[in-house]
Write a structure and sequence with these properties.
Number of strands: 12
Distance between the termini: 41 Å
Helix content: 25-40%
Oligomer: single chain
Strand order of the largest sheet: 3-5-4-12-9
Radius of gyration: 20 Å
């Protein structure tokens, strides 16, 4: 889930201070984050863009790490807000988790503590009761996510209805640590060589064509994530071995 303790945007929230999204552990460490079609090209430069099986329609997601640890993300993105998915750029502002995301979703505030602030932050509102620039930028990101979610969901639903998904098996053992990311889906490889995708493109046009193309190319980013996970786990193993030897 994107939020832990969502509360209404009321006067109590207006007096709060917010910090960089990276000041919050939930944002830094989230290994798999929901995204929308309009940000897929930007994120595919760093992460595999796939779908994740859910109880309803498969969710479009960016796989940011094979471990729930920001150290296992690709080098160069760990301290960059611009590489965050829109829903994480908006944090701690979130959509009401009790309803499907969309333009009419209720905007809320995740009432959690920033565990790693690097500055004094910014107020939610200014002294004259206007939204601060930091708040406006986050709500703009949230608005884009909400606006583009229904079409993103529709593409995933069509692919699922036509049975064009296949499981993406991500199971590894690194330095004795088992890694298993279940419920991930990719577009069937053989569907790209036939006319199976034609109904998807007919229903959703260039958005679907662009998204599927970016999705397939982005799968090569899995190698970068695997290397980053190995570096983290090998480092921890070496440290433990060194401590044991010293003892």
């Amino acid at each position: 889930m994107l939020c832990e303790c969502p509360v209404p945007l009321d006067n109590a929230v207006a007096s709060r201070r917010i910090y960089s999204p990276l000041a919050y552990a939930r944002v830094r460490d989230m290994p798999i984050a929901p995204i929308v079609h309009s940000e897929s090209f930007r994120l595919a430069s760093w992460f595999p863009i796939v779908w994740r099986r859910s109880s309803a329609v498969p969710d479009l997601v960016a796989v940011r790490s094979f471990l729930p640890d920001s150290r296992a993300q690709p080098p160069g993105v760990r301290a960059s807000v611009s590489v965050l998915p829109l829903a994480l750029q908006a944090y701690p502002f979130v959509l009401d988790p009790a309803a499907p995301p969309g333009p009419d979703s209720t905007r809320m505030f995740d009432d959690v503590v920033a565990d790693a602030p690097t500055d004094v932050g910014a107020s939610v509102t200014t002294t004259d009761n206007k939204l601060s620039l930091a708040t406006e930028l986050r709500l703009q990101a949230l608005e884009l996510f909400a606006q583009h979610f229904p079409l993103t969901e529709a593409v995933g639903q069509t692919l699922a209805e036509l049975d064009l998904f296949e499981p993406w098996e991500l199971k590894f053992n690194i330095s004795g640590t088992s890694i298993d990311l279940p419920d991930l889906l990719i577009v069937r490889q053989k569907s790209l060589d036939t006319g199976a995708l034609a109904p998807v493109l007919y229903r959703h046009g260039l958005v679907a064509a662009h998204l599927i193309g970016v999705h397939r190319i982005s799968l090569f980013r899995a190698g970068i994530l695997l290397a980053a996970a190995r570096a983290v786990l090998h480092g921890e193993t070496s440290a433990e071995s060194g401590a044991s030897d010293d003892g």
